[in-house]
Amino acid sequence: MIKRVCVYCASSDFSDKIYLDAAYKLGEILAEASITIVYGGGSAGLMGMLANGALSKGGKVIGIIPQFMYELEWGHEGLTELQIVNNMNERKELMMMNTDAAIALPGGSGTLEELFETITLKRLGVYLSPIIFVNIKNYFDPCIQLLDNAIEEKFMDQRNKQMWKVVDDPDNVLNAIKNSPAWTEDARHFATLKKDKA
Question: Which single residue of 168, 172, 175, 184 has CA 20 to 30 Å from 18?
Answer without folding.
Answer: 175
